[in-house]
Amino acid sequence: MWHDAVLVAGKDLRIEARARVGLWQVVPFAVLVLVLLAFAIGPDQAALRHAAPGIFWVALLFSTVLAIQRSVAVESGEGTRDGLRLSGIDPAGIFLGKAAAVGLQLLALQLVLWAGMTLLFDVRVHVVWLAVVASLLATVGLACAGVLYGALSAGLRVRDTLLPLLVLPVLAPVLLAGSKAWEASLNGAAASGTQWLKILVPFAVIYLVVGIVLYGPLQEAG
Amino acid sequence: MAPVVHFRAAVALAGRFPALAGVDLSLHQGEVVVVMGPNGAGKTSLLRSCAGLLPVTSGEAVVLGVDLTEDHTSVRRYVGLLGHAAPLYDDLSAAENVRFATRALGLPASSADEALERVALTGRLRSTAAGRLSAGQRRRVALAALVARRPALWLLDEPHAGLDADSRTLLGRLIGEAVADGASVLLSSHEPQLSVPLADRVVAMAGGRVTGEEPGGRRAALSAVPTPRTDAGAVGIHVA
Q1: Number of CB pairs < 8 Å for A and B?
Q2: Cα–Cα distance for residue pair A124/A140, rounded to 1 Å
Q3: Strand arrangement, sheet containing B184-188
Q4: B122 φ, ψ to 5°?
């Protein structure tokens, strides 16, 4: 399973490196969301600082949908879905590999968003470990849930419009917990921030396990 | 010896539609069987069922010793399917596509390089992104991926489509080599002049059923087969 996961993740990341969809579309989109939401809030620096964690996670969530759509699209070429099913690769390995590839892209995106937030909103993370742990856990959850729902919509003609409808409500707990954990880390309130990790941990674990178990049947049904 | 493919009254559904409506077919080791028939006859569905992509819902269906009515997925790593569309990632090079196929089965990179040689994909073509290759070249890359996997059962769905004369000759040679190695081949075709000479048997399909059978060019002299037109009836297959 792990060999297969590494193989699939390597393949997906190589394709992304060549296609540069992430670099030229997903990253600019995320930065655009960051800037537009900042415009919507206005020039009040205190209000921007207060809203910064929420803006960060909304931008990340919307960008996650794009990254997932891209991950699904890679396998939607004529013949490639059947090719993957015939490849002999364990479906659990495919799930883990695709989730790992999406997760690594999301981590890179968060670094960009973090930098953008620092520049635009003049915020500083005081409890770095809390922000990092929250980001890592959220990334696992977002990637696993996203790839799972991506597989669910993969065989549908309306998948591009359906996927956001399916996945955004599901990811709402990550938005909430991630925002609160980051707010705590910006305010230096580690104790209150760790409470929100209690939402992120089970979310990540549940979607990791459910994805490993269900990806194969979803791939067959798609 | 048990047949490589044993279908008896096999039924497979594509949605509610019976894509296979009681197929009887057997294929033995080292045998090449060509399936012919009009569009919608069930040729592609038969190949997809043999590959474990289209589940058989009733009847008997055993491929390479695997009962497809109980488990249709585990046979997949032992078969090679060349479908209408080449299963390639456009942003990966030809060589990377073939290596991905071989690494998935735990085969060494050398087996991919060797397969690329065998389909005459050399030089710059190997490092060209699959998305920039012509349809015929893409088909050759897909063929290389199939060759590299060394499947026990080759399932070729209209493999001559989009190939130039040299590639068609190459395909015939590869099929001959695979059969000499002990593989079996099930091939669907609309081009009897190209496929019948390769076949031990030619099977006609219509309406999701096998409707007739004749010796192919490997067994019978080609002259015994009437001049082909476009479908199974045209090659003189006796229709039951």
Answers
A1: 68
A2: 24
A3: B79-82, B153-157, B184-188, B32-36, B201-206, B209-215
A4: -125, 170
CA-based max dimension of chain B: 51
State the ipTM, two decimals.
0.81
- A83 contacts in chain B (CB < 8 Å): 87-88, 101
Closest listed residue to residue A57, CA positions, set A126, A141, A165: A141
Q: Which residues of chain A have pLDDT under 50?
A: none
Length of chain B: 240
Secondary structure string (H, E, C) spanning A102-137 = HHHHHHHHHHHHHHHHHHHHCCCCCCHHHHHHHHHH
Contacts of A73 (CB under 8 A, 6+ apart): none
Q: Chain A contact for B47, CB < 8 A? A: no
Q: Which run of H or E residues covers position A192? A: helix A190-221
pLDDT averaged over every residue in chain B? 84
**Residue entry with tokens 């067994």:** B219
Main-chain phi, psi angles of B65, to 5 degrees: 85, -5
* Cβ contact A79–B53 (<8 Å): no
Tokens of residue A71, six digits = 């991950």
Alpha-carbon distance of B186 to B154, in angstroms, equals 6
Q: How many CB atoms lie within 10 A of CB B85?
A: 18
| 8 Å CB contact between A183 and A125 | no
Using CB atoms, pick whichever of A4, A82, A220 lies closest to residue B87.
Answer: A82
**Quick check: A69 and A97 in contact, CB under 8 A?**
no
Task: Return the bridge partners of B155, or none.
Answer: B81, B186
Helix or strand or coil: residue B186?
strand
- Could you tell me if B178 and B204 are in contact, meaning their C-beta atoms sit under 8 angstroms apart? no
Q: Which residues of A touch B157 (CB under 8 A)?
A: none
Give dist(CA B160, CA B166) in Å, integer.
Answer: 11
**Band of residue B72 on the pLDDT scale cut at 50, 70, 90:** confident
Q: Which residues of A touch B52 (CB under 8 A)?
A: 86
Strand partners, B205: B210
The confidence score (pLDDT) of residue A119 equals 87
Q: A142, A178 in Cβ contact below 8 A?
A: no
Interface test with A, best of B49, B50, B89, B157 (most A CBs within 10 A): B89
Please name which of B156, B159, B153, B202 lies closest in space to residue B179, comparing C-alpha atoms.
B153
pLDDT score, position A130: 94
